Amino acid sequence: xxxxxxxxxxxxxxxxxxxxxxxxxxxxxxxxxxxxxxxxxxxxxxxxxxxxxxxxxxxxxxxxxxxxxxxxxxxxxxxxxxxxxxxxxxxxxxxxxxxxxxxxxxxxxxxxxxxxxxxxxxxxxxxxxxxxxxxxxxxxxxxxxxxxxxxxxxxxxxxxxxxxxxxxxxxxxxxxxxxxxxxxxxxxxxxxxxxxxxxxxxxxxxxxxxxxxxxxxxxxxxxxxxxxxxxxxxxxxxxxxxxxxxxxxxxxxxxxxxxxxxxxxxxxxxxxxxxxxxxxxxxxxxxxxxxxxxxxxxxxxxxxxxxxxxxxxxxxxxxxxxxxxxxxxxxxxxxxxxxxxxxxxxxxxxxxxxxxxxxxxxxxxxxxxxxxxxxxxxxxxxxxxxxxxxxxxxxxxxxxxxxxxxxxxxxxxxxxxxxxxxxxxxxxxxxxxxxxxxxxxxxxx
Length: 445
Ligand code: HMG
What we know:
Peroxisomal Thiolase, Chain A, domain 1; 8-stranded mixed sheet; 3-stranded mixed sheet; binds 3-hydroxy-3-methylglutaryl-coenzyme A
């Protein structure tokens, strides 16, 4: 069977940085460790004045096309996943195609373009759409370009303000890919939830604590649904488990839940029983509250065992390397978690070809999806091309007053002029608005 998956990936971070411990915490009167240890975040990325979801997406896509020597004719489909769109009709993919056409011979008139929306999970849904299109044999030998791009802003003073971020991930989906092949098996956990939403407003209405419960509930459902087609999963099945990462602390909670689920009725549970007892079984409790309390206690104990810590350090912690420096990129978040894991494996000199990743995507509103990815022979050459560390280091470090100006500049309800903090070079920039209030762009050499 022909493998289909991600052939190449490029990442573009917003070029500004808000340091949470040094700059944000003192202004908020909070202990810096609330952010660095509690949420697990060191900094957030923000777009410069000349950046937005189109420029970040187009710049990531352009780097990817240049590196792979692609021309518009090689790409038959452009899907953009975003929850930061500024137009209810014209998709961001048309703007990105327009940017790319301005620097290439040829055009994307033959390419199907769209915009996927389901909060953060839309990035993975776009991958799935591309996979299905290729598997169905409708691609006529062409590849699909998937771009996940977001500027994740919260209202100032909202608890979510500490988890903002901005950046784009461009992915090329092909037959016989170099990076990872996607599994046919998938599992879903999907329910009508009102924990995080943007009813025709830019900044989300969020019930933060509830959103975390919904994330865990849907993720557990998705894992069970995945296992119903792929068979029971075991911690040893996966080299890494990249999760949607709104902030690393959320992944810490998801990871212990997944581990508890995967070790149930295995020799690992038996070995750990001496130390922390067997996992509580619902039938042993009189009411659900007592059972839930017992589960909470068991999870706390499980999280501090050496067996769990070893698994977490190997399979989860490396997935957080990029996220903790850039914040939540919404649709791109799980895709930078995968990239971070592969990057760490390359840095550690690990031979990963043939190993499997367990990928847990999530979007509020709410839906989780679990699937597996098999690492391909060309993964290391591909991942070695990323320059995300340099991009992260090169960001302009904002003062708090500058951060507030940047936040206002990207607030759709405000019209704020702001000088660029960085000088654009070899990239697409936002130039203003046209006759029909469309956004306009140009390439700066
Ligand atoms: P908060 O209420 O200000 O923070 O906001 P907190 O008081 O709960 O503290 C956070 C953690 O830091 C806690 O850890 C504290 O104990 C710890 P926990 O108990 O949860 O393990 N802490 C400290 N640790 C060490 N030293 C200290 C210290 N102080 C506190 N001094 C909240 C937290 C997540 C609610 C907020 O950031 C928020 O509303 N975020 C936005 C919503 C969100 O990200 N939800 C995540 C799940 S939903 C999701 O992932 C989807 C999403 O990406 C959107 C989409 O799909 O489109 C958001």
